[in-house]
Design goal:
The protein is α/β, with parallel strands linked by helices. The protein is built from 9 helices and 7 strands; from the N terminus they run E-H-H-H-H-H-E-E-E-H-E-H-E-H-E-H. The strands form 2 sheets. A 5-stranded parallel sheet has the order 1-6-5-4-7, sandwiched between helices. The protein has a two-stranded antiparallel ribbon with strand order 2-3.
């Protein structure tokens, strides 16, 4: 299921309610602890890699429709994000390992280590000009780190936004990762919520918000 909110709505309350509901479900999913294991993260990255490879022609066609993006550029710089997925899968076990750190003499022979922990629920707001690469690459990071995620593709590239939403909906449980399409109204509803991390590429003005 793809959760969508219309760019134009006569009832501005609805997107807020939809976003709050999605966020609550993702927080509940995160609380189960499923995202913490190495096996789960690797499996989800493999699913994402397979989905991008399967839908690459559709994504390239959508970018051509929205942006007139040349096929070569779309394949190399956009759907080529699967290389980043492979990199994450290869190194994830090492990234998740605790790191020993030195301790002051006053607490020796005690020992200390830094333990990587997922943050919770991440929001990914991708731009129109590299709509696939700057949606998938942050999602790779969110999955590898053990987070849930809500992805907001750019409404300025509507065909690509729809293609990304379809890819996400058929690949992941929406309580874990989902895509929400829509315009400024949807973005405002999302930004009104409290996320644990936000991936954003865009203007300085929206960045400050």
């Amino acid at each position: 299921m793809v959760l969508q909110s219309s760019p134009v709505s006569s009832n501005p309350v609805q997107p807020d309610l939809a976003v709050a509901d999605v966020l609550a479900r993702q927080r509940a999913f995160f609380a189960t602890g499923k995202t913490r294991s190495l096996d789960f993260r690797v499996e989800q990255l493999q699913r994402l890699k397979a989905a991008v490879a399967q839908d690459q022609d559709e994504l390239v066609a959508a970018m051509a429709q929205d942006l007139g993006k040349p096929e070569y550029e779309a394949y190399v710089y956009e759907v080529g994000a699967t290389g980043e997925i492979s990199h994450a899968i290869k190194h994830l076990r090492r990234w998740m390992k605790p790191q020993r750190v030195s301790v002051p003499l006053t607490i020796q022979p005690g020992r200390a280590e830094i333990i990587p922990e997922p943050l919770g629920v991440a929001l990914i707001i991708s731009p129109w000009n590299y709509p696939v690469q700057l949606a998938i690459a942050p999602l790779v990071g969110a999955i590898a780190a053990g987070n849930c995620a809500i992805l907001k593709p750019s409404e300025i590239a509507p065909a690509t936004s729809a293609a990304i939403a379809r890819l996400i909906s058929k690949t992941f449980d929406p309580a874990y990762i989902t895509a929400m399409e829509g315009g400024v109204e949807t973005s405002q509803a999302l930004l009104a919520q409290q996320f644990d991390h936000i991936f954003f590429t865009g203007s300085t003005h929206i960045g400050r918000i």
